[in-house]
Design brief:
The complex is a heterodimer of chains A (about 250) and B (about 270).
Chain A (H helix, E strand, L loop, with lengths): L1 E2 L2 E2 L5 H14 L9 H12 L2 H34 L1 H16 L6 H8 L3 H25 L3 H9 L4 H38 L4 H11 L3 H29 L7
Antiparallel strand pairs in A: 1-2
Chain B lengths: L1 H17 L1 E12 L2 E12 L3 E5 L6 H9 L6 E6 L2 E2 L7 E4 L11 H11 L4 H14 L15 H14 L4 E5 L7 H17 L3 E6 L2 H7 L2 E6 L4 E6 L16 H14 L5
Helix pairs in contact in B: 3-4, 3-5, 4-5, 7-8
Classes of the chains: A mainly alpha (about 250), B alpha/beta (about 270).
């Protein structure tokens, strides 16, 4: 965007919103909204603390494991559903139900099934992320150019070669789109899991700070979390753009 | 003794020239109740170019895909070099109407892709690919991607890929229909050179009468509903002509007229 002929870097508007936050905070409008500058100061204070680093580690562990399973199970399942009519008929209703279901309501069931520990949190994260990954991989495979498949067949491709050299790459733009949305949902999943199942990681910090009305701390952790989620999402959007040059021409 | 041997050799040669690389006998193909092909028989002489020509919906592409082993016939048999077709095989290579290139792979990898699928080692298949990239006139474009090439150049990549697996039979499904008129003319001339130089059998599907007469040794006219071979035309004097003068040759013009007269009633 250009203002008075000067080219502004992306997301400059965040400055404006940050300023608004600062003004509202300084006006003393609400105890729950401390000024942004205080939040940032607190942020740097707590980043060094052992409690924060433990929370970061626990959250990252649950998040990465959950996303890993969602991707490793989700992409092949989606590709298989796109290729095979029978598998598609069997699984599609479930995928659609779970995609739109309020998964938070399922968390108590997971607690009963898998206990109150990390395992349940990881499964919650996976459940938040996996369905959109499956659906996107499936959509990517279903729009594949038929003659690419015929080409591979005519040159004697084995099923595995067709899968790894044609289907995966042809569906890659959609797959990456699905992974990006899935990861954003996984951020929700991991926090909800930590809050509901057992108070660990950032969930525990949120609970601790909000119960003790440490609003500056609360906001600081929230800012960290938002920034992390946003960075991951932008990184995946960058990867998506790198393959999008062929998205229209498959 | 020497005489006898020469005779045997000559006989062998004659036999070789007239034998068929591909023989289609009694092939039918039904889609549910629809008969796409009915009891169709056709021979494809070795080393020659045979066109399948007909109005749209006459099943020419269906026949080509059955020969390729991509579709299974409901009935009948296809022999390639004497052995029956049960699926795709190394003796046939396919050139696609829409090129069917991997958009995420370079020209080099695309041309080598047939060999890659057949398990040829990387350095070996790339050497072969480079040779055929040169042969189709894409020298210097090895590192380019399909979306950076024009339609005509893309089809040259598709052609190079089919050539580099060195199959006896080249199956071409309306290969020039998606390129512009001038490029198509150049392609047709290049194809004549290819038929003359490469010892391969070409099966060429087209809906253009002029194109079929220009490039073919043998033209099979297919008529629709259900598909059958209505006529086989073998231009006799066109091969010896210079590529530039074929289109002015009386035989060329006569055959074009004759085919148009027989197809006219099938065009909606």
């Amino acid at each position: 965007m250009k203002v008075f002929g000067i080219r502004l870097p992306g997301m400059s508007s965040l400055l404006l919103w940050g300023l608004l936050w600062e003004i509202v905070g300084r006006s003393g409008y609400s105890f729950f909204v401390p000024p942004l500058s205080d939040v940032v100061t607190t942020l740097f204070e707590i980043i060094g603390t052992a409690a924060f680093q433990k929370a970061l580690y626990e959250t990252a562990y649950a998040f990465c494991s959950g996303v890993f399973f969602a991707i490793v199970i989700g992409i092949p399942t989606g590709i298989l559903m796109g290729k095979n009519r029978l598998i598609d008929e069997l699984l599609l209703p479930w995928v659609n139900i779970f995609l739109s279901a309020p998964l938070t309501a399922l968390v108590p069931v997971l607690m009963v099934l898998f206990g109150f520990g990390m395992k349940s949190i990881i499964i919650t994260t996976t459940l938040f992320a996996i369905w959109i990954i499956i659906l996107n991989a499936r959509a990517g495979v279903m729009q594949i150019n038929r003659s690419l498949v015929e080409m591979a067949t005519s040159f004697g491709a084995t099923p595995w070669a067709a899968f790894s050299k044609i289907y995966f790459w042809a569906a890659l733009p959609e797959i990456l789109g699905g992974v990006r949305i899935g990861i954003i949902r996984a951020v929700k999943g991991v926090i909800i899991g930590q809050l509901l199942i057992s108070l660990v990681g950032f969930g525990a910090l949120f609970e601790l700070y909000s119960n003790n009305f440490l609003m500056k701390h609360f906001w600081a952790v929230l800012v960290v979390l938002f920034a992390l989620a946003f960075t991951i999402s932008e990184f995946l959007a960058y990867l998506e753009r790198r393959v999008s040059y062929y998205a229209a021409k498959r | 003794m020497a005489m006898l041997q020469t005779n045997a050799l000559a006989e062998d040669l004659v036999h070789h020239q007239t034998d068929n690389a591909v023989a289609v006998s009694g092939v039918s193909k039904n889609y549910g109740d629809v008969e796409a092909l009915k009891n169709l028989s056709l021979d494809f002489p070795r080393g020659q170019l045979t066109s399948l020509l007909g109005p749209s919906g006459c099943g020419k592409t269906t026949l080509l895909k059955i020969i390729a082993g991509l579709l299974e016939p409901t009935d009948g048999e296809i022999l390639v070099n004497g052995s029956p077709v049960t699926g795709p095989g190394e003796d046939r290579a396919f050139v696609f109407q829409d090129f069917a290139l991997l958009p995420w792979a370079s020209v080099l990898r695309n041309v080598a892709f047939g060999l890659e699928l057949r398990g040829v080692a990387r350095s070996e298949r790339e050497d072969i690919a480079i040779k055929y990239i040169k042969e189709v006139g894409l020298d210097g474009f090895e590192k380019s991607f399909p979306h950076e090439l024009s339609g005509g150049m893309r089809q040259r990549v598709g052609l190079a890929r089919a050539l580099s697996v060195d199959s006896d039979v080249l199956l071409m499904d309306e290969p020039f229909s998606a390129v512009d008129e001038q490029t198509r003319r150049k392609f047709q001339e290049d194809l004549l050179a290819l038929v003359a130089n490469e010892n391969k059998t070409f099966i060429f599907v087209t809906h253009s009468i002029e194109e079929a007469v220009y490039v073919s040794d043998q033209i099979a006219i297919l008529l629709p509903r259900p598909s059958r071979v209505a006529d086989i035309i073998r231009p006799t004097g066109l091969r010896e002509k210079d590529t530039a003068s074929i289109r002015r040759d009386p035989e060329y013009l006569d055959i074009v007229d004759e085919i148009w007269a027989s197809l006219k009633s099938y065009v909606e």
